[in-house]
Write a structure and sequence with these properties.
Elements: E1 3-13, E2 30-39, E3 42-48, E4 57-68, E5 70-72, H1 84-91, H2 101-110, H3 113-128, E6 132-135, E7 137-138, H4 145-156, E8 162-167, H5 178-193, E9 199-204, H6 214-226, E10 230-235, H7 243-249, E11 254-257, H8 263-271, E12 277-280, H9 282-288, H10 295-301, E13 305-307, H11 321-330, H12 336-342, H13 345-350, E14 367-370, H14 377-380, E15 387-390
Parallel strand pairs: 1-4, 5-6, 7-8, 8-9, 9-10, 10-11, 11-12, 12-13
Antiparallel strand pairs: 1-2, 2-3, 4-14, 14-15
Helix pairs in contact: 3-4, 4-5, 5-6
The structure holds zinc ion (ZN).
Length: 398
């Protein structure tokens, strides 16, 4: 029941549109010389330091900036093996088509539970050390009933935001038998995985021979919905396609990538802005040397966006949200404020969570501290490890 007050916050970015006395330009809900009181893991008070109530313990963050912890709403952390050679080949011009996923499937199936658990723990710790407080974790490198279920069991040890991605690609042993694999994913595999998952996802991509068509993706998503799972879609990554249309039609919480969109797709996403978030993953475009999504077009149309890492062994083996933020501003022309909100409240919205992503009373005390006086330094000092999670027990830093 101990309460802790954090003082010495030079700049507090809350993302709270209702916070009295805050600077609401660019929707940041910003306070200078602020304090935050935390109790039982929740935020109990937010405001100017001069008006702060008493608390049992006090921690001075020394004139640094505090922001909401990053919500990384798209990652694939459960895998073994290494695809650095594939990355190197891409940098010399080899195109990504999803085929390399089979390499990770072989390595993941061969790994012991203990090894997979150790690898996931290491990756989650890496994210935490860079300011991420919530991470969604997908399966998708098992692609058998047993290996998908154990991937999700292990993921669930680290996050409540777990996603069943049995429909990542058609595994090699089902080559020429796509229908049988979709039957497995929507039948026995779904039954084994649903108890460990909150979401179901599908790689809906007609431009990859390994991924799923619109009809197959619809069958997968509807089966997941019938099993009580929320819907997410990998769509419109490699070319124009049906992913966004399907996601909006089925009321998915998020459609991720959104690199190639038609005018109709943008209109659909704008009209579904309260339901379906467009999650942009610019680390993938960086790591595959591909064109970035047109984020300005989406924002100008009124689409809800999120930014996430897509940390995975093939197309983006970076767990760094600060890196993603730097790309979003430099390469996709978001303002620093738009980028920060997309990786905090935007990520929370894509996970349909109201208790994270914004610093306000009653929310989880997920706070990230920057070794800098302003959130702008996240972009201004790109590549410098200034972000870390503020530990309610008082330890803070990177
Ligand atoms: Zn992904």
């Amino acid at each position: 029941m101990t309460s802790t007050i954090f003082t010495g916050i030079a700049e507090l970015v809350t993302g709270d549109a209702l916070l009295e006395g805050a600077d609401h330009s660019e929707h940041l809900g910003r306070l200078s010389d602020a304090a935050v009181v935390v109790q039982d893991g929740l935020i109990a008070w937010v405001g100017p330091a001069a008006e702060a109530p008493a608390a049992d313990e006090s921690q001075d963050v020394g004139g640094r900036a505090v922001i909401p912890g990053f919500v990384d709403s798209h990652s694939h952390l459960v895998f073994a093996g290494d695809r650095s050679a594939e990355f190197a080949a891409r940098m010399t011009g080899v195109r990504y088509d999803g085929g390399g996923i089979a390499t990770s499937v072989r390595a993941t199936r061969a790994a012991s539970d203990d090894l997979l658990r150790t690898l996931v723990a290491r990756r989650v710790a890496e994210m935490h050390a860079q300011g991420t407080t919530t991470v969604e974790i997908k399966s998708g490198y098992g692609l058998s009933v047993q290996d998908e279920a154990r991937s999700l069991r292990i993921a669930a040890e680290f996050s409540s935001e777990t996603t069943f991605l049995g429909a990542h690609v058609v595994p090699q042993e089902f080559a020429g038998r796509r229908c049988e694999y979709v039957d497995l994913v929507t039948g026995e595999m779904l039954s084994a995985c649903a108890p460990h998952a909150r979401w179901i996802d599908v790689f809906c991509e007609p431009h990859s021979a390994h991924a799923f068509t619109e009809d197959e993706a619809r069958v997968v998503l509807c089966a997941g919905r019938d099993a009580g799972l929320g819907l997410r879609v990998h769509g419109n990554q490699l070319g124009h396609g049906p992913g966004v249309r399907l996601a909006v039609e089925l009321g998915a919480a998020s459609v991720d990538h959104c690199t190639f969109l038609s005018a109709d797709d943008v209109e659909r996403l704008a009209s579904a802005a309260e339901t379906t978030v467009a999650t942009l993953l610019p680390g993938v475009e960086f790591s595959t040397r591909s064109p970035y999504p047109d984020a300005r077009r989406l924002i100008d149309a009124g689409v809800s966006i999120a930014l996430a890492s897509d940390c995975n062994p093939g197309t983006c083996y970076s767990s760094s949200i600060p890196f993603v933020l730097a790309l979003a501003v430099r390469e996709m022309r978001l303002t620093p404020a738009e980028a920060l909100l997309a990786a905090t409240s935007g990520g929370a919205k894509s996970l349909r969570r109201k208790d994270i992503g914004v610093i306000c009373v009653g929310n989880r005390a997920d706070l990230t501290v920057l070794d800098a006086p302003s959130y702008l330094h996240l972009f201004y000092r790109a590549g410098v490890p200034i972000a870390g999670v503020l530990d309610p027990a008082g330890r803070h830093g990177n």
